[in-house]
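Batch manifest line 468
LIGAND: iron/sulfur cluster
JOB: complex structure
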Amino acid sequence: MSVIAKQSTKIKSDSGKEASESQTYWITTFGCQMNKADSERMAGILEKMGYVEASTELDADLVLYNTCSIRDNAEQKVYSYLGRQAKRKASIPHLKLVIAGCVAQQEGESLLRRVPEIDLVMGPQHANRLELLLNQVENGNQVVAINETQILEDLTTARRNSNVCAWVNVIYGCNERCTYCVVPSVRGKEQSRTPEAIRYEIEKLALKGYKEITLLGQNIDAYGRDLPGITKSGRRENTLTDLLHYIHDIDGIERIRFATSHPRYFTNRLIETCAELPKVCEHFHIPFQSGSNEILKSMGRGYSIERYKRIIEKIRSLIPGASISADVIVAFPGETPNQFRQTINVIKEVGFDQVNTAAYSPRPNTPAAKWPDQLSEAIKVERLKELNSIVEITAKESNSKYMNKVQEVLAEEINPKDPTQLMGRTRTNRLTFFPTIGPLGFKHKVGDLIDIKISDLRPFSLSGIPLN
Ligand code: SAH
Ligand code: SF4
Ligand code: F3S
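JOB STATUS: finished
ARTIFACT:
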């Protein structure tokens, strides 16, 4: 960590607020569920420190951007947001500006040169240390915390956005070396939490009334690789499969999900466990990235598309009705029109429930960014457009199987656009809307598990009527 003394330490005393008045904070989160989970923990730390949430970003005494660097457009967003806050600081000197997350890790001190108004730059591994770092800022320093470090067990209470569904980190970081991906360099080495710490967190969530948990990791199949434990038969003991068994009996938790799965490590044993354990939901997010074996090889993914399809077949044979979602990259360096077709064909063949698509974006400190055979912006746009139109068609087709079927939906919140409706997700992760009051006059509420007869389909959501 580097601590840079500010020219003037006046800022601390010049807070412009009465001692009795609470300081306010605002967090904007970019990027994936990992970042969202980190933001909830950082919000919890700020509230423990006495901060209260501001009503708007422009009122806040502390603004924290939890940033994402996965593609260039995600990174650029941060700079435009930052410019606005830097201007604000000229008239409100007590404003604290914090840049957390993956861009912070990637850029480090150079962010301070670019935007000197920033008080704190902190990488994702430092999220749980926010209080300590802010104390150093209070002492009049500009602080950069991006050194590789052991992630602290989270002793604070996250301020979660939902009272029903919660994220639970199980493994941080990523040891893979996909040639396009910035994550290993910004999230560091894999660090698994112990099964005991994870179980303890979920038990506490259950006591608070949470019904659904999603276990999180960039490569969740790597869970436990860095923990000790080998069984008598020589098998590794602390795998994701073992963890699912270990937490399954926690009373009050009705649904268990996990993400993101890596086809290289996704085992038959895991699929069998998901089929066996009733709380594990029938939804799998397994990115395949490309339908071409040559491209998969140059991406460094470590599996063939045949292996990927075998995984899907196995899931479907053991868990009929399971939904499958994936991520895909188009226009990776050197991708030929034919290789792009192979990706399209996989999408048509597998019939995904949802596919997140992106055009390849060269990232700092990644091998593929330096390769000479980069494709033009025009090809990227054209391929992405074609892919998206296919994805929409297959998503619609896969939606049609829900028509007139009864699905169990966990009510997560009131529909913000229509207070007479609740919204939630099916076990297969389909967003579903339905009236709060059922046909028999029964009033349903947030946190209930409700059987819904599906009566309306849209490409990315469903509507229906409660059975009672
Ligand atoms: N750990 C997950 C995904 C992490 S990043 C996995 O291994 O699949 C989320 C998604 O962003 C990736 O699945 C990939 O499709 C996309 N992505 C990552 N780097 C990218 C890049 N440089 N350009 C375009 N998309 C990228
Ligand atoms: Fe990135 Fe690959 Fe790790 Fe996923 S597995 S986070 S794509 S390096
Ligand atoms: Fe983005 Fe970092 Fe997640 S780069 S996708 S926020 S791990």
